[in-house]
Amino acid sequence: GQQLNQSPQSMFIQEGEDVSMNCTSSSIFNTWLWYKQDPGEGPVLLIALYKAGELTSNGRLTAQFGITRKDSFLNISASIPSDVGIYFCAGGFNAGGTSYGKLTFGQGTILTVHP
Amino acid sequence: DTGVSQDPRHKITKRGQNVTFRCDPISEHNRLYWYRQTLGQGPEFLTYFQNEAQLEKSRLLSDRFSAERPKGSFSTLEIQRTEQGDSAMYLCASSPQGAGTDTQYFGPGTRLTVL
């Protein structure tokens, strides 16, 4: 099925560095979500974006909803070892606030943080 | 407030056997979703329910798959005559009705291995 294009596929960084990853789509979405997944577990919601141009922070995480509605990025500042995991973007579409249901996911960005 | 729960967490079965998974959503959420995730990929949508009504089914949901949510609370996903290609993580998610219906919260998943 259709998936979003997420980049980079993997990142190896030193503790304390900032991280940036993004997600692009050929289709528009009016909700963008970012999740983190640890091995053997389900995705955990990090940030939800509902409006084009919206910039939202959650602690050291900042995400933006692109103005074209076809892209989003996630920044992590001052990375720590527990940031290790797989980060997924997901796009959703709704009309009048009621969701059409499914989310479309990217392939994920694998983040490794060296202490 | 408990999150989404899934049972079992792991299932190993032989090809040709039937398996059934259970999902209990967040209690006030009336929407429930099933996704499948294979190694190195993001979750792929299978189906979703609003209360007890099944509103959408993906082409990934072959005739061997059936999902139910009889009382609008927990849901079951059954796979009949399992094949090796069914080996994957099966994820359940739930979301509230109204604003934010796209904001889906995932359970820990059921890892299926078909031998």
Summarize the structure in words:
The complex is a heterodimer of chains A (115) and B (115). With 115 residues, chain A is mainly beta. Chain A has strands spanning 5-7, 10-14, 19-24, 31-37, 44-49, 55-58, 61-65, 71-76, 85-92, 94-95, 98-99, 104-105, 109-114. In chain A, the strands form three sheets. In chain A, strands 2, 4, 5, 9, 12 and 13 form a six-stranded mixed beta sheet that branches. Chain A has a five-stranded antiparallel beta sheet with strand order 1-3-8-7-6, with no helix packed on it. In chain A, β6 (55-58) and β7 (61-65) form a beta hairpin. Chain A starts with a strand and ends with a strand. The mean pLDDT of chain A is 92. In chain B, strands 2, 4, 5, 6, 9, 10 and 11 form a seven-stranded mixed beta sheet that branches. In chain B, β7 (65-68) and β8 form a beta hairpin. Chain B is globular and about 40 Å long. The mean pLDDT of chain B is 93. Chain B is mainly β. Chain B has no helices and eleven strands. Chain B starts with a strand and ends with a strand. Classes of the chains: A mainly beta (115), B mainly beta (115).
Helix amount of chain A: under 10%
Reading the helices and strands of chain B in chain order gives EEEEEEEEEEE
- Separate helix tally of chain A: 0
Mean pLDDT of chain A, rounded to whole units? 92
Percent of residues in helices of chain B? under 10%
Number of strands of chain B: 11
What is the overall number of helices of chain B?
Answer: 0
Mean pLDDT of chain B: 93
Largest interface: A-B, 31 and 33 residues
Distance between the amino and carboxyl termini of chain B = 37 Å
Give the overall silhouette of chain B: globular
The total count of strands of chain A amounts to 13
Proportion of β residues of chain B? over 45%
Low-confidence stretches of chain B: none
The assembly state of the depicted protein chains is: heterodimer
Question: Which spans of chain A of ≥5 residues are poorly predicted at pLDDT below 50?
Answer: none
How far from one another are the termini of chain A? 37 Å
Structural class of chain A: mainly beta
Q: Over all CA atoms, what is the radius of gyration of chain B?
A: 13 Å
